[in-house]
Specification:
The chain has 566 residues and is an alpha+beta fold. The radius of gyration is 34 Å and the shape is flat.
Length: 566
């Protein structure tokens, strides 16, 4: 019966003095990995996010072995995790990873009970020194005294209740989701893009046939168009990730920076379930970080200042996301001091930026995005270098979006970032300039019109503007910009397409509007260096290649964008 207790029992029992063997065993175990019981609580809106939880477990998995002892239950308020982590790293390293994700103060790390055979021996008391007079002589009495074989059932129910609730969620998760490589998803999207191009070729070829003689053919092509659009929307949704994958990093950013700046700040999140293309989510983290740091450093006042102004000592930063007509709008707001118009104008003049006295508030707020501009008097590791907001505007513009600013002095400031949902397929407007066809992102097109002679005005006899409803807009002549020799020169013979870039409007002069349709974006970077004015290319229904215009680059700097009131 003693052989069944463990491999070490037969050898250790006849030893008269087991105590000297203990120090080497202890020395050996000190070189082994430590086992920690880790308990923490995540916020309810984060607890159900598979992507966020995968990132957390992957990060912990790099430090050692991870065993999930307890997951959050089905109840919305149950967000507690219990992990058993085997690692060579100290407990503080684990805490550094978990503090980034968990609620403040919820992380508990303790050394787990050692399950080594030596502990079992000690627990069962098999080798505990007993006086010879008290040790039973009968082997059956020995077994009864130590309770070793009396009732083997009690140890088994202990882990059973803990593992039972964990099994159901794991099985359910495995049935409802699978992991797919990003390269496979990208390949599928490329194939759908080719299908869109093929469908456009069929549509263009069908325009020249008799609809009466080929009614069934045209009906089939129209049905193919609808099915292609549905397939495209479904495939694009596979690349979508919730904004919580980006928002989850900001509680720690706000907590650490507010402690560093001696400010009391509360972060409020909303719209974490709003989805955005994976490629945009990855590129959105840096601009949003700059905006949050800017609100915390320049917007939120110190507690004593807020108290003197009749505000709560704790400031509030709001981070939200929502879908609006094919776009996603992300807002970063604060209830701080707001932007100081006069201070911004004074700093702009001091740095040599061209400013006028009659600028609107929106035009003044756009000055903070100029390269090198900063209202901070002292350069610190947080602000003062004048690069943060410039990076925000450039990165957002590169993603086909724009940044708007609204501010009220003493009340607060709100930054609104507007982005397309995806960069793979876009709705575009085709225009013709001479023998060339160009694509304009439809989301940036405000209107189109055919100018009359009295709408054309000259500035200093050199630059011409067009007057649209009381405002003079700068004009970009595409034939001149791209060297199209056979493009129209007379403005009254062509079309003006008014586009909106970074909150301001500019007119593009083209020969003709060809129509609206979806286009598949093809990158130029594999074969060309970055060419000013073009953000990509697409294949038309007739097989020709058309360039997609980079409207922010064509519009130029802030001088060109500022329209003047009549």
């Amino acid at each position: 019966a003693l052989d069944g207790a463990g491999g070490t029992a037969p050898a250790a029992a006849p030893e008269p003095a087991p105590a000297p063997a203990a120090p080497p065993a202890a020395a050996t175990s000190s070189l082994q990995a430590d086992v920690f019981d880790v308990r923490f609580v995540v916020e309810p809106h984060v607890a159900s996010q598979p992507a966020w939880l995968d990132n957390l477990l992957d990060e912990l998995g790099r430090l050692g072995g991870v065993e999930v002892v307890q997951r959050p239950g089905a109840a919305a308020e149950d967000c507690a995790w219990w992990l058993k982590i085997t690692t060579l790293m100290p407990a503080e390293t684990l805490r550094g990873v978990l503090d980034f994700m968990a609620e403040p103060g919820s992380v508990e790390i303790t050394e787990a009970a050692d399950d080594a055979p030596a502990d079992e021996e000690e627990a069962y008391g098999f080798f505990a020194p007993l006086p010879l007079a008290e040790a039973p002589a009968d082997p059956a009495a020995t077994e009864a005294a130590y309770g070793f074989f009396v009732d083997p059932a009690p140890p088994t129910p202990v882990p059973a209740p803990a593992s039972a609730p964990d099994t159901a969620p794991a099985g359910k998760s495995a049935d409802t989701s699978i992991r797919v490589g990003v390269d496979k998803v990208d390949l599928m999207i490329n194939l759908v893009g080719e299908l869109v191009i093929t469908q456009a070729m069929l549509m263009e070829s069908a325009q020249g046939i008799d609809p009466v003689l080929h009614e069934r053919l045209l009906a089939g092509i129209n049905q193919l168009q609808r099915n292609t659009r549905d397939l495209q929307d479904t495939v694009m949704s596979v690349r979508m990730l919730p904004m919580s994958t980006v928002f989850s990093r900001f509680p720690r950013v706000v907590r650490d920076l507010s402690r560093k700046l001696d400010k009391c700040v509360e972060l409020k999140l909303s719209g974490e379930q709003t989805e955005l293309d994976k490629g945009l989510v990855e590129r959105l983290a840096d601009p949003l970080t700059h905006l949050v740091r800017n609100s915390l450093d320049h917007g939120i006042e110190r507690p004593d200042v807020r108290r003197a102004r009749g505000k709560p000592e704790t400031g509030t930063i709001t981070l939200s996301a929502a879908h609006q007509s094919g776009h996603i709008v992300i807002e970063v707001g604060d209830d701080g001091a707001g932007l100081d118009r006069e201070r911004i104008l004074a700093k702009a003049r001091l740095q040599g930026l061209p400013v006028a006295d009659n600028l609107t508030d929106a035009e003044v707020w756009r000055l903070i995005f100029e390269p090198g501009f900063s209202t901070a008097d002292v350069v610190t590791d947080v602000s003062g270098r004048g690069v943060g907001m410039d990076v925000v505007r450039r990165n957002i513009s590169a993603m086909g979006g724009r940044v708007d600013v609204q501010s009220i002095r003493g009340v607060g400031t709100r930054f609104s970032v507007r982005l397309p949902l995806t960069l793979a397929i876009l709705d575009g407007m085709s225009v013709r300039v001479g023998g060339e066809t160009y694509i304009l992102p439809l989301a940036m097109v405000a209107e189109s019109l055919q100018p009359e002679a009295d709408m054309v005005h000259s500035v200093s006899g050199v630059r011409r503007l067009i007057r649209v409803r009381g405002r003079y807009l700068p004009v970009v002549e595409l034939y001149r910009e791209f060297g199209v020799a056979d493009g129209k020169r007379d403005w009254t013979e062509g079309i003006m397409v008014v586009v909106e870039v970074d909150g301001a409007q500019v007119a593009l002069f083209v020969d003709e509007l060809l129509g609206q349709h979806q286009v598949v974006i093809k990158s130029l970077e594999a074969n060309f260096r970055r060419v000013k004015g073009f953000s990509g290319a697409t294949i038309l229904g007739d097989g020709r290649v058309a360039m997609i215009l980079d409207l922010p680059a064509l519009a130029g700097g802030s001088r060109r964008l500022h329209s003047v009131a009549a």
